[in-house]
């Protein structure tokens, strides 16, 4: 594909959308971290690794809330648009 045939797929976000996306990212990283801790606990022979279950459940809820806050913002505000090579 030649450079003139390549299409750019970058998105433009408003400040609030960027903040919501960053928050979603943080909640995903938190959840992954808890899963990793639980995994290491189990691998290490900790028989009380179920203590992570409630923490993971709460982190998963925060992740879902952050995800839908972000998606709802994009839908209602319409701030995420493709660059000039694409139409919204």
Describe the structure.
Mean pLDDT is 83; it is low at 1-9 and 83-88. This protein has one domain (11-82). Strands 1-2 form a two-stranded antiparallel ribbon. Helix 1 (15-43) packs antiparallel against helix 2. The protein is mainly alpha-helical. It has helices spanning 15-43, 51-77, and strands at 11-12, 81-82. The longest helix has 29 residues, at 15-43.
Topology:
Blueprint: E1 11-12, H1 15-43, H2 51-77, E2 81-82
Helix pairs in contact: 1-2
Describe the global form.
elongated
Radius of gyration using CA atoms only: 19 Å
Mean pLDDT: 83
Major sheet, described briefly? Answer: 2 strands, antiparallel
**Gap between N and C termini, in Å?**
24 Å
Number of domains: 1
Strand content: under 5%
Number of E strands = 2
Structural class: mainly alpha
How are the strands ordered across the major sheet?
Answer: 1-2
Helix content: 55-70%
| Helix-strand sequence | EHHE
Helix count, DSSP H or I runs of 4 or more residues: 2
* Residue windows where pLDDT falls under 50 for at least 5 positions: 1-9, 83-88
């Amino acid at each position: 594909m030649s450079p003139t045939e390549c299409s750019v797929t970058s998105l433009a976000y408003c400040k609030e959308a960027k903040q919501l996306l960053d928050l979603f990212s943080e909640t995903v990283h938190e959840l992954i971290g808890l899963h990793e801790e639980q995994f290491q606990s189990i691998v290490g022979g900790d028989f009380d690794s179920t203590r992570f279950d409630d923490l993971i459940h709460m982190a998963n809820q925060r992740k879902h809330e952050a995800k839908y806050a972000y998606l709802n913002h994009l839908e209602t505000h319409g701030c995420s648009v493709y660059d000039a090579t694409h139409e919204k």
